[in-house]
Amino acid sequence: MKNSDFNQRRLQATPRGVGVMCDFYAQQADNATLTDVEGAEYIDFAAGIAVLNTGHRHAKVVEAIEKQLAHFTHTAYQIVPYESYVGLAEKINELTPIQEETKTAFFTTGAEAVENAIKIARCHTGRPGVIAFGGAFHGRTYMTMALTGKVKPYKTGFGPFPGSVFHAAYPSDARGISVQESIRSLESLFQCDIDPQQVAAIIFEPVQGEGGFNVAPAEFVSALRAICDQHGIVLIADEVQSGFARTGKMFAMQHYVHQADLMTMAKSLAGGMPLSAVAGKAAIMDSPLPGGLGGTYAGNPLSIAAAHAVIDVINEEQLCERAVHLGGKLRAVLEEAQEVCPALAYVRGVGSMMAAEFSDPASGKPSAAAAQAVQKHALAQGLLLLTCGQHGNIIRFLYPLTIPEAQFDKALAIVKNALESVS
Ligand code: PMP
Q1: What is the C-alpha separation between 339 and 400, in angstroms, rounded?
Q2: Residue 47 backbone zone (phi > 0: left; psi -120 to 50: alpha; other: beta)
Q3: Which of 11, 105, 242, 258 lies at a 20 to 30 A Cα distance from 74?
Q4: Is the separation of the CB atoms in 139 and 114 below 8 Å?
């Protein structure tokens, strides 16, 4: 089997809108190693876009799915319920950093979780407005596209979008946006666009994912909490990308004193199986009428089984601690490389949610070319890296937190080499 045979067929059979990054096709994947159909091996620092914090096919996750497979694969939870859904909700309620009675509902994709969080917030407040942030990514469905703060390619050609959605500026050192400016831009929405009493929710990522791993400063989260409290607005933390040990805590919100009212989660929740959730304050979660929330596949039993195993693995293998350890090693390599790679303008992140941002040393302008050169160089040496950011000039590192130390060190050597190559 050859990769090139499939490429021809892909171009013929599937639309270009379903963009594909790699020109090789997966055959096998184990922990942090991905093998293509020609037998070439890659160290997987993309991890299915932040889905595999527990690695590809973790033995415990596979075992849990196989066990469930022998019982039933689908009943539609809303028709015939099963205990594992309730048990997982109990676990998530326990883990969610919200110090009030919490409840959890399951869905299938990250976008679906965000959609439902907005539904719940609107139902609870009886208000239409939603405020999101520049650079945010919340999904590809209509409401989540509207919330997403990046036009190309996510919104191009797809309008009109649902109304009552507004964007404020997310704080960023690299963009020169201070917390004060960000909050000012939010408050100016209340003067120019919408009465705060008409705002149902403010949704933000504690660490922006697709937007470039921008970490929310503590004062920013405090200010959001205060604004939401003042006006009765529901604060939603979208932890679809930052959740499940990636930042060195089970959830990124645990890095802050203040708490959200609702949280969305997906990706690494179920170790490669499709599952998402909205968790939040019981009084808010209970607003929609019975039947107002759900979906045919929402809380699929195989995915729920996988999620139980994922949470066990995170605890047993101390993946929060490992995220801090691995992220520290990566940060050291990146910061050292800044001395020989002038295009590497910013190194930032928290735990193992680390990113390297590139700009042109002469003009200071974002350099997607430098990020792509590093990505290409790494791939040629067998390391799969992802880019992100408004300008595609940022490399994000999303390795499985279960990666063997020696393989991680090998990957770091490739990163170092790739960075030196663009200097
Ligand atoms: N929210 C965030 C923060 C995300 O990173 C993503 C996916 N990159 C989504 C929502 C949408 O998730 P999905 O692709 O599963 O719909």
Answers
A1: 28
A2: left
A3: 242
A4: yes
Find out whether 171 and 214 touch, Cβ atoms under 8 Å.
Answer: yes
Nearest-CA residue for atom 10 of ligand 1: 138
The pLDDT, as a whole number, for residue 1 is 82
149 Cβ closer than 6 Å to some ligand 1 atom: no
Q: What is the mean pLDDT of residues 367-392?
A: 96
Q: How many CA atoms lie within 13 A of 15 on its CB side?
A: 2
**CATH T-level topology, domain 72-316:** Aspartate Aminotransferase; domain 2 (3.40.640)
Q: 320 C-alpha to center of ligand 1: Å? A: 21
Non-local CB neighbours of 33 within 8 Å, separated by 6+ positions: 41, 42, 43, 44, 56, 407
From CA 308, how far away is CA 91, in angstroms rounded? 8
Distance 39 CA to ligand 1 centre (A): 31
Predicted pLDDT of residue 17? 94
- pLDDT(423) > 80: no
Question: Which of 53, 138, 140, 273 best tests ligand 1's pocket when mutated (most atoms within 8 Å of CB)?
Answer: 138
The CATH number of domain 3-57+318-421, selected from 3.30.70.980, 3.90.1150.10, 3.90.1300.10, 3.40.50.300: 3.90.1150.10
Global pTM value? 0.98
**CA 134 to centroid of ligand 1, rounded, Å:** 15
Contact 396 CB / ligand 1 (< 6 Å): no
304, 307, 312, 317: CA torsion to nearest 10? 160
Ligand 1 contact via 209 beta carbon (within 6 Å): yes
Pairwise CA distance, residues 279 & 194, whole Å: 27
